[in-house]
Amino acid sequence: MKAIDETLNKAQVAFLSYKNFPGKKKAEFLRTVADEIEALGTLVSTAMRETNLPEARIINERGRTTGHCRMFADLVEEGSWVDARVDTALPNRMPAPKPDIRKMLVPVGPVVVFGAANFPLAYSTAGGDTASALAAGCPVIVKAHPAHLETSKLVAGAIEKAAIKTGMPSGVFQHVYGEGFETGQALVKHPLTKAVGFTGSLAGGKALFDLANQRPEPIPVFAEMSSINPVILLPETLSRDAAKTAGALAASITLGVGQFCTNPGLIIAIDDETLQSFIAALSTEIQKALPAAMLHQGIADNYSKKLAQALAQKGVKAEGQSSAQGNPAQGTPLVASVPAEIFLQNPALSEEVFGPFSLIVKCRNMDELHKVINRGHGQLTSTIIGDETEISRHKALLNVLIEKAGRLIINGVPTGVEVCPSQMHGGPYPSTTDSRFTAVGADAIKRFVRPVSFQNFPDSLLPDELKEANPLGIWRVYNGEFKK
Amino acid sequence: MKAIDETLNKAQVAFLSYKNFPGKKKAEFLRTVADEIEALGTLVSTAMRETNLPEARIINERGRTTGHCRMFADLVEEGSWVDARVDTALPNRMPAPKPDIRKMLVPVGPVVVFGAANFPLAYSTAGGDTASALAAGCPVIVKAHPAHLETSKLVAGAIEKAAIKTGMPSGVFQHVYGEGFETGQALVKHPLTKAVGFTGSLAGGKALFDLANQRPEPIPVFAEMSSINPVILLPETLSRDAAKTAGALAASITLGVGQFCTNPGLIIAIDDETLQSFIAALSTEIQKALPAAMLHQGIADNYSKKLAQALAQKGVKAEGQSSAQGNPAQGTPLVASVPAEIFLQNPALSEEVFGPFSLIVKCRNMDELHKVINRGHGQLTSTIIGDETEISRHKALLNVLIEKAGRLIINGVPTGVEVCPSQMHGGPYPSTTDSRFTAVGADAIKRFVRPVSFQNFPDSLLPDELKEANPLGIWRVYNGEFKK
């Protein structure tokens, strides 16, 4: 594809200068991106129209988007994120002298970003992937999401304006359109593309991952894909709090019409009287919840189909359903239950149903609950509802859960992803393609950088981060010691 | 394969306890591994017999192996390597309270290690992959290298003895034999295997990488594979130092019969009178170098074959060759030259010739030299011979070189890889399968760990690294600030 070739060549030319821009300049760019997004008059209404999401949610998401642009600006302006290590020479060491070696993280090159349908702002054109890649020093090519093309164009315009205002090289950010798979495939296959960020379905993410690995030069793909976010209810704690827990979970299941990657799609508990009251309370809450328009017709159709498939499985019983009748563009909240014995035999029941649905797995005892946990795939999150004393008695459970998820939550809900240094939004396959990285928070920048060592360099030829006098005043490991 | 299944199940059982061992205990284990290796009476003679490497080299390599075991012991005993981040709760934040979130690195699970033929100790059974994975908290399964099986058995015995002495769980380390590919493939394909470390050929590493990516659950493979480590000679500097540079390069080319992943296999320079004197001086040095036995007959045969292929290419001229006649088990030092114009047209000339060989690419001018650099694949190292003033005039060259290698060296040789925090032994494909990680130095541990967030955890249920009082006294990012 000639157009794609031009796009990547432009990105590469931009890269060769942009990568050397000081943190201060990149920070100015990212902060101006935030300002320009805030200055877009029609952004909220356009995004509302294209995604059916309510105003408050879009405004909140805009805040999150400008927030992470400013967070990455702060990060690169401060500068310690490059993980600088300095080991000075020992010219008289025996049997051989030790050379001076210094190391820091540098950007990998042009990054291709595929945004998410369910976050038209925060995980899309100026989303976490774009912001972290730009912060790292990588030019970004965004493949516009066809479900919110106008929103994407507005945000792309804001980024382009900010790039011009702050003197960034042309090609530091490019916005590419194209229906179907060809454009995306051509972007991932282009030899100048050095990494890919993706948020979406398991099928889509896995296809890009495979494509990237089959290139003559394989490149890393960070795809955030599929997670059903199990919530484990410990029986004693539940017996005290069944109604409160049911209320919190109902709100989490139905939040944003269930269209969150951290939606709690699986509830695992011991089948006793307490669980019966919990199910009754949860069902009551779900009955009160209203159907609402999903992001687009394709997602609504997919939800209906997957929901019908789940309910058609042997042993699955619908427990509570919104009492209002939804139209075909809407997602109707529903919770169902299934005995653990049957759940364990049917892998289809572990698949994500993207929407306001959750399946309660009823275990006869803790042994069976352990089996359900052990059988689980990788997840973005796992939650335990239990007090300190009760969890302490089930440490073996915690010990296994940690192997299955990127974030563990006690007495909370998985929805709501804080943007902060301690955030891990990622997890073992299939929740992402590489459990060693996060898509949210400052460490998201690590996906798009690689270390380079400089051996025996004269001080004047070293990057500022590694110069002997530490002119940027960043934290470094200097001869084994953390210091500024 | 039933035996492999038993091996991985044993590793997984070990993992569920070993991963929770405090750094102090893991450090004790790793230091005892070093002690037990030093106590092996027949290790040096066995390794010499199996690899044809001289005594001094084996003793040096043993020191390096015990050295990195003790380095990783220090690292995990000190404990800051887990990159702990703590963000405390803001219960009154509007519009929503901020939960307490804390994050640290945890081990990925059982790791399969394939050692290198050319480093029977330092990159093999107790090599950098094994030591870093054990330090991370991952059980290790080593597939013994058939070319130094007895050496591998001795070292495995030392590790097993150390594991028993220090009370490690059975299965924390396992040594697996097996000729052919089946055993290795079965190890990589087993669902309980969570990562792979490999050092060897491009074909071997790529095959394992593909296998790992085709699993139902893809897993990361860090394969260090193929590098020709270009050395660029800047003309003015060379005109002052041609003989000295020739001497240093000849020593690097022939060191260990050229059997180093950092062997300088490509020399790139401007074709002028200075280069002619350099080639004459280098040829004289190479003529004086003696053929020597290679690691095994397969490697010697491969060297002869690849060397003959390189010399048969159009435009390639043998410049200097050892004046002594080698036998078929030996590698004969040789340097050749080729005009850049021809080099640029023939990709075969960029392939690694594993042995004491280097190809001089003669460029008509700096433009052509830039073209040669631009065309280059990913490398472990790139070297520039040039003084500060001359390199300053060619910063564009440095700007591109950094994209092609993990380590840049000025006025040195690529052979000799320091084990220190600032070391990056890795690089863009095909030198490794993931340029974001190093195989040498403290950061090698990062290949085998992943972050996990703990949200809203009572202090008693947090790992010690994340407890509020910081009982381990490690460096952490606490509410955005680096502190102990």
Describe the protein in words.
The structure is a homodimer of 484-residue chains. Helices cover 40% and strands 18% of the residues of chain A. In chain A, helix 2 packs across helix 6, helix 3 (43-51) packs across helix 4 and helix 9 (235-254) packs parallel to helix 10 (273-288). Chain A is built from 15 helices and 19 strands. The longest helix of chain A is centred in the N-terminal third of the chain and has 24 residues, at 55-78. Chain A folds into two domains: 2-225 and 434-483, 3-Layer(aba) Sandwich (Aldehyde Dehydrogenase, Chain A, domain 1); 230-410, Aldehyde Dehydrogenase, Chain A, domain 2. Chain A has helices spanning 2-18, 23-38, 43-51, 55-78, 128-136, 149-165, 182-189, 202-213, 235-254, 273-288, 297-312, 340-345, 366-375, 388-392, 395-401; strands at 85-87, 101-107, 111-114, 140-143, 173-176, 195-199, 221-224, 230-233, 266-270, 292-293, 317-321, 330-331, 334-339, 357-363, 379-385, 405-410, 449-455, 476-478, 481-483. Chain A has 484 residues and is an alpha/beta fold. In chain A, the strands form four sheets. The first copy, chain A, has a seven-stranded mixed beta sheet. At the A-B interface, strand 1, strand 2, helix 8, helix 14 and helix 15 of A face strand 1, strand 2, helix 8, helix 14 and helix 15 of B. Strand 17 (449-455) of chain A pairs parallel with strand 16 (405-410) of chain B.
